[in-house]
Amino acid sequence: MPSSVKRTLTLAGEQRALVMDVLVLIDTLDDLVHNAKPIPLTDQVRMDKEGIYDILDQIRATIPDEIKQARWIVKERQEMQAEATREAERIVKEAREREERLISDDEVTKQAERAAADIIEDARGREREILLGAEDYADEILNTLEVNLSRFNAAVQRGRDRLERKDASAEIG
């Protein structure tokens, strides 16, 4: 397995851990809002303001890392594509050099041309496989990140909605 794929797989595991950290922080914030102590005879609740700010600061600190990691994954994908292209070019170059060495005899030339064509076709097939695999992997990681960020946004919006309802009921009451 190429080292760039290993690095990408390692990063993917780290990214999933950070996404889980953000989701845990969001769940903690949601629990804090949900389990806040009510103020008697009102719809208002009493909450630990510093606790909420602490969780929000942790979320803000974690999200930029996830975005950096997503950018890193895209960069890794590009490097994998470049590596696949270089490998294909090297194989094609080797095939052409081999073909030139074998030109001395007509039959040898025909065999060399067939072998070169096979090598070139094989190289192009390998290049396509590597590129498709790299694109699929990067797309999967970015899709996971997109889903988790959507969940994060939804959880933040739910928290805001709850706070707005409580503020609105406090103004009415």
Walk me through this protein's architecture.
The longest helix has 67 residues, at 106-172. β1 and β2 (45-46) form a beta hairpin. It is built from three helices and two strands, in the order αββαα. It is 88% helix and 2% strand. α1 (3-34) packs antiparallel against α2. The protein has one domain (3-167). The chain has a two-stranded antiparallel ribbon. With 173 residues, it is mostly helical.
Describe, in short, the structure shown.
The protein is mainly α and 173 residues long. It has one domain. It has helices spanning 3-34, 49-101, 106-172; strands at residues 37-38, 45-46.
Write the layout of secondary structure elements.
Blueprint lengths: L2 H32 L2 E2 L6 E2 L2 H53 L4 H67 L1
Antiparallel strand pairs: 1-2
Q: Structural class, from helix and strand content? A: mainly alpha
Question: How are helices and strands ordered from N to C?
Answer: HEEHH
Radius of gyration: 28 Å
Query: Spans of 5+ residues with little confidence (pLDDT < 50)?
Result: 4-9
Distance between the termini: 65 Å
Spatial ordering of strands, largest sheet: 1-2
Total number of domains: 1
In total, how many beta strands? 2
- Give the % helix: over 70%
Largest sheet: 2 strands, antiparallel
Average pLDDT over all residues = 80
Shape: rod-shaped
